[in-house]
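Q: Joint fold for the lines below.
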Amino acid sequence: MGYELKKIDKHGVRHGTIKTVHGSIETPTFLPDATRGFIKTLSNEDLAQSGVSAMVVNTYHLFLRPGTDIIKKVKGIHGFMGWDRPLVSDSGGFQIFSLIRNTTRKNGKKPLGEIHEEGVYFKSPIDGSEQFLSPEKSIKIQFDLGTDIIIALDDCPPNHSSQPELKKSIERTIRWGERCFSEYHRQIKKRKIQKNKRPLILSVIHGGEHKDLRKACFLGLYEAAKKNKNNITSDWDGYGFGARPVDAKGRFLKEVLKSTADLIPKNKIRFALGIGSPRDIFLCARMGWDVFDCVIPTREGRHGKLYLKKGGRLIKGGQIYYNTINIGSSKFAKSLKPVNAGSGLEILEYSSQSYLNHLFKSGEALGAKIASMNNLKFYSVLMDEIRGAG
RNA sequence: GUGGCCAUCGUUCAACGGCAGGACAGCGGUUUGUGGUACCGCUAACGAGGGUUCAACUCCCUCUGGCCACC
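A: Joint structure:
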């Protein structure tokens, strides 16, 4: 169980393997977001065909619906989804903070939740019921889910927060991290999980756009784990990059990503949470990030944006080249060209651009499925090229 | 045949004697640990003719077309 670094190539890409209970993941890797236990419109067979070997599910969403009782009855989220390869669960921190912030910003309404030291109180967006999520509870739910990699609950601030606000958030992230780490060991003991069957646990580094705060957060999390004296593990299995990776103007936080990657010990998983566009992933992999997840390929696919190769290879001479098209555009209404010739995916080869255009104009879910598969396959090829580039 | 009602973007529904507005459709764009079947733009109309008026889509008359009632 854990991460094994095999080599760092001349571009700075770390080639490694993450070993989990449900199999190994070759890194760098991209994991699509099956937030609520599914990737919209795609079956497990569709996902496998599209080159998906692992996914990220969300503690917060699955806790609200369907709840852990039903999931426990089938021995976890793998059984529930019918998926036998690795799954990562995100802690729910990002969702709750985004929920609280967005409702306040969008309609000036009272926030749907409040952050306290013991945890977060919030109203369920589904039925308005009062809910509570704490570091301990997030970890317990993730053990109930039975995911292969779990993530500590973090306090996720907007990047443009003031320095004092960011400082408060990293301090809370560290305190919550310590509680998560203790709870992790309690759960392992309570459930009598063998050392080689344990889920891996990651924490999340915050600090907004400030390199020094990112460093302080990393050191705090590192020390917090060290305080816990036990024989299972005395450190996190990896660290994530928290909060949106772009500034207020939408510019990618390249330097912060680079300096944060450099903080993390070489034998630990580096998870660039929520990243990102093919270009951002390409850049981050060369900075030494190992794992990526993002809604882009699936969400944008559902809205008709397709990622396509320009020529033979995506990566040429240290640069990445690709096209995007909006298949719903009338430009494609008469095109009999295949959606993606040479992709190796049957459905992308026999479906024409005009057919996919028609599906989108008709609001048909099959369109979202074809587009999502195209984009996931594109991301899969991108990661293959990144791994093969050295 | 007689009487009444109606005629506005492609469709559907508003408003007003002084710049004709929305919804849907169409077109273009946005989306970075998924409240996204979402969000943001843009395009687009007063049935025809005459009259009253400084000014008419709006008031009056005729025509054309539609709907309803009665014969």
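Q: Anything notable?
A: The CA atoms of residues 59 and 141 of chain A lie 7 Å apart. The first strand of chain A starts at residue 2 and ends at 8.
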